[in-house]
Design brief:
With about 350 residues, the protein is mostly helical. The chain has 16 helices and no strands.
């Protein structure tokens, strides 16, 4: 069977699409609308209190150097092959991986999961890409979810480790209460995530105490949480450049707007944005991220119009563009299957 035929065969197995049904459900639509209305309200109040000049913000965006914007797009979407490779390393170490597959087989599920994270609250995109990998690779869903949890824990660990280092480089040892609060939240989330994973990994010795109907799913999840030394090193090595790409994206956006922000400051902005995307109330933290980026820049002495312009440009690159570059292929695949 050719590669093209194999790809077509794999995607035919995804006919039952839970993401489509979830996206059409009224509770989900109402949650998204509530989140967007909250964002509009918060943004309006923040704009009114800041006294920003809307015309100046639009001028800055209109004068953006699109060569740097292209670099920002390349940095953002260039991270997805690396993310797919990292996930491939985690899945390929599993003893239940019976079908040979390449990292590029995971690229489309990763993009589609990212798309759903941007469209729906609660990080349901992580479950969706787990489902797609389960259907395509014939690996137990619980086991795939375990590998996704390891991925997320690696991201949180690097976030918690980089945040204080970058804060010291940018602000010194007295960063101020708002940054200290974000730093504390990053470390708390990371610690909670790691403790949860360690607890789940040691759940095996208590399997016999669980209800019978939970023993098999728990066993599959524990299998996905296993990590050998070589794979752990590979995951750690591949996670660090992902954060560098995040910083490069913000740096290119700042240059596009004519701002002279150093690499440590742009990496700090990227870390703040990544931390605020974990807020489950709105899709991908929409509203919180924009306000967080602009507020951080204003606290660091950037004029409010430039801060708002950079926040809007970053969300255009790292949020709104996802609906176009990942949404159109997802819709084509969905209607092709149905």
């Amino acid at each position: 069977m050719s590669t093209e035929q194999s790809e077509a065969h794999l995607f035919k197995r995804e006919a039952a699409d839970p993401a489509w049904n979830s996206a059409r459900s009224w509770p989900t639509i109402l949650r998204v609308l509530a989140g967007l209305l909250a964002f509009i309200g918060l943004a309006g109040v923040a704009w009114w209190r800041s006294g920003a000049d809307l015309r100046r913000v639009l001028e800055l965006l209109g004068e953006a150097q699109w060569g740097y914007v292209a670099i920002a797009f390349a940095a953002y979407y260039g991270s997805f092959p690396l993310r797919a490779w990292r996930w491939h390393r985690l899945l390929s170490q599993l003893p239940t991986s019976v079908h040979p597959f390449r990292p590029y087989h995971l690229l489309r599920p990763y993009l589609y999961g990212w798309l759903l994270n941007c469209a729906l609250p609660g990080k349901v995109g992580e479950l969706y890409r787990s489902y797609l990998a389960h259907r395509r690779l014939q690996i137990a869903l619980g086991t795939v979810i375990g590998t996704v949890l390891i991925e997320r824990s690696a991201d949180f660990l690097f976030l918690a480790l980089l945040f204080p280092l970058v804060v010291v480089l940018v602000l010194g040892t007295d960063p101020g209460k708002p940054i200290l609060t974000l730093q504390f939240v990053a470390m708390l989330l990371s610690a909670a995530f790691v403790v949860g994973l360690v607890t789940l990994r040691h759940l095996g010795r208590f399997l016999h105490k669980l209800p019978t109907f939970l023993q098999h799913p728990a066993q599959r999840l524990i299998l996905g949480l296993q990590l050998n030394r070589h794979t752990g090193i590979a995951v750690g090595i591949s996670t660090f450049p992902l954060w560098l790409l995040e910083g490069l994206r913000v740096y290119a956006e700042s240059r596009a707007l004519g701002l002279s922000l150093g690499p440590p400051l742009t990496l700090l902005v990227a870390l703040v944005a990544a931390l605020l995307t974990t807020i489950p109330l709105t899709p991908a933290g929409v509203g919180a991220v924009e306000l967080g980026i602009a507020s951080t820049l204003v606290l660091l002495g950037i004029p409010v119009e430039q801060a708002i312009a950079l926040a809007l440009l970053d969300r255009f690159v790292a949020y709104w563009s996802v609906f176009l570059l990942a949404g159109i292929p997802w819709l084509i695949d969905h209607f092709r299957r149905t």
